[in-house]
Specification:
Layout: E1 4-9, E2 12-17, H1 18-35, H2 41-58, E3 65-66, H3 68-78, E4 89-90, E5 93-94, H4 115-123, H5 127-140, H6 143-154, H7 161-168, H8 172-179, H9 187-191, H10 195-241, H11 261-265, H12 274-301, H13 308-333, E6 338-347, E7 354-359, E8 370-374, E9 379-384, E10 389-392, E11 395-400, E12 406-415, H14 418-427, E13 432-435, E14 438-441, E15 445-447, E16 457-464, E17 469-472, E18 485-487, E19 492-494, E20 503-507, E21 510-513
Parallel strand pairs: 2-3, 7-14, 7-17, 11-16
Antiparallel strand pairs: 1-2, 4-5, 6-12, 8-9, 9-10, 10-15, 12-16, 13-14, 17-20, 18-19, 20-21
Helix pairs in contact: 1-2, 1-3, 2-3, 4-5, 5-6, 5-10, 10-12, 12-13
């Protein structure tokens, strides 16, 4: 248990803990040294001790014991010894030297925040005039509200004796003399406002209370929204990264495997940095989310907390995390700096009237652990965790060509430089063949075992003359998505990735259902 000491200040007994007593003893000693050789010094010290006793009576700690915090607040209220003037005293009160006024918000004469009260003291004018001006500029010009908010933010409130001295300037002694006569020093006593001015002040006070209630309701609504939003983000985050549901990318159906986002990272970036990316991402996401929840709670319950240091520490941690994450992603992104393409092609010496497109190696025969399908299943990635291989679906484009008919396969990859990208394109494994009137295409291309995905892609361009009939094998998984199918009946284009009709004809660069082709042509 902390040691307590009984002391007598200005005829009043107090219990004070040992740490607080040391600070108070040094403070009183400094006050005595300050006024020891000045005229009226003892009376000044006695007055200060009386003021200390008043403050302690109103700010006792637990069990009536004066704590270190109480002493520090008292010193902040009265001021440090060096703030007092040694040369002049009036009725036992320390007098401050004459100085220019500083503008503060006046909490002793406030309707909303004390802005007009502070301006009134600074300009030695009744605050009610400024309140009327703010209302007029708000109603007719709309700018008064924003000026008031700006002054509210920019001007500190005069709460300590030092700040009040700076706010009142030469009139500070008059303020102190009147303040001693009343515990509550009203605006009418300070400014001797006229009857009309007091009436306006009462009206503004009533309006201020209404505005304050509206503001509180609005802040409570905003606070509730922030709290619910923050908790929703946290729940979603834990559902995704902890419980692995519903997955970062999925097909939208529960019959397919769901992909856990960190699993995909292992095939995009260096696996050794994946834990760092995840950890830094957690900090970068959760810290501001928690801050949003905290601000929401403060808006709801309207409380003040000494959280400046904690907020600064959290902000520094967040900035450091975002910076480290950005550096890691930038370093990993260098592997996508350059892009290279390669192509191979097979020409058709005699373009058949009907070209049959069938599957070679089928995706349905693949053994894989996870599947990612997106963009209406136009794009698909199959992951084999055992062999560390990736299988991706190529894209088929059918184009109208008046020149030589051909099948062209274009591969694309990215790398640190063009040579690296070129090497990666050559590593992509894709099989296709053309024999007579039959085109055989694999449903997927393979990224070699152990190599990361490097924006790899395979495009198959089928260039054939208009009027060529195509028969697509319904078992193929290749999606023809870069061209539109055309419906003669509706005279409109439409997209189709799985059509019941396997017969199509190319006319004017568009595939149309080959419904009217005679049986002989088929």
């Amino acid at each position: 248990m902390d040691k307590t000491i009984n002391i007598n200040i200005s005829g009043t007994l107090f219990k004070i803990d040992e740490d607080a007593y040391i600070i108070l003893r040094d403070y009183l000693q400094a006050i005595n040294n300050r006024f020891r050789n000045t005229q009226g010094g003892p009376e000044t010290v006695e007055d200060i001790e009386s003021r200390i006793a008043e403050i302690f009576q109103s700010r006792k700690g637990q069990a009536g014991v004066i704590t270190k915090v109480c002493v520090e607040e008292m010193i902040a209220t009265i001021g440090k010894p060096e703030d007092f003037d040694q040369n002049e005293t009036v009725t036992g009160t320390p007098v401050y030297t004459s100085q220019a006024k500083k503008m503060y918000r006046n909490p002793d004469d406030s309707i909303i925040s004390g802005v007009c009260g502070g301006i009134g003291i600074y300009l030695n004018t009744e605050p009610v005039l400024f309140r009327i001006l703010f209302v007029l500029f708000t109603v007719f010009f709309g700018i008064g509200f924003f000026i008031y908010i700006a002054l509210w933010i920019a001007l500190p409130a005069a709460r300590t004796d030092i700040q009040k001295r700076e706010m009142y300037g030469d009139a500070y002694n008059t303020y102190k003399s009147r303040a001693r006569q009343s515990d509550v020093y009203t605006a009418s006593e300070r400014n001797s406002s006229s009857g009309i001015g007091n009436a306006f002040n009462e009206i503004f006070r009533a309006l201020g209370k209404v505005c304050f209630i509206i503001l509180r309701i609005f802040l409570i609504f905003i606070g509730i929204t922030l709290v619910f939003t923050g908790f929703a983000v946290i729940v979603s985050f834990f559902m995704l990264f902890v419980f692995k549901y519903p997955g970062a990318i999925s097909t939208g159906t529960f019959s397919q495997d769901l992909i856990y986002f960190p699993d995909l990272l292992n095939y995009i970036v260096n696996p050794s940095v994946v834990p760092w990316i995840i950890a830094l991402s957690i900090i970068a996401i959760l810290l501001p989310t928690i801050a949003v929840i905290y601000w929401g709670v403060k808006m709801i319950f309207w409380f003040r907390a000494k959280d400046g240091l904690l907020s600064l520490i959290c902000f520094v941690i967040w900035v450091a995390s975002v910076s480290a994450l950005s550096m890691i992603l930038f370093h990993e992104g260098i592997s996508f700096a350059q892009t290279s393409r390669s192509s191979s092609q097979i020409f058709m010496s005699d373009t058949p009237d009907t070209l049959h497109v069938i599957s070679g190696n089928k995706a349905s025969d693949l053994k894989f652990d996870k599947e990612i399908s997106f963009d209406n299943e136009t794009h698909a990635i199959y992951i084999n965790d055992g062999s560390k291989e990736l299988y991706l679906r190529p894209n088929l484009y059918v184009n109208s060509s008046d020149d030589d008919a051909k099948v062209e396969v274009r591969k694309r990859s990215s790398g640190h430089n063009r040579l690296d990208a070129k090497r990666k394109t050559e590593e992509l494994q894709y099989n296709y063949s053309l024999k007579n009137d039959t085109l055989t295409l694999d449903d997927y291309f393979t990224i070699p075992s152990g190599r990361r995905w490097s924006a790899d892609d395979v495009h198959i361009n089928l260039n054939i003359p208009d009027g060529t009939v195509l028969e697509f094998d319904k078992n193929t998984a290749i999606i023809c998505h870069s061209f539109c199918f055309y419906d003669d009946e509706t005279d409109s284009d439409y997209a189709s990735d799985e059509s019941e009709n396997k017969w199509w004809i190319l006319k004017n660069g568009k595939l149309r259902p080959a419904k009217n082709i005679n049986a002989k042509q088929k």
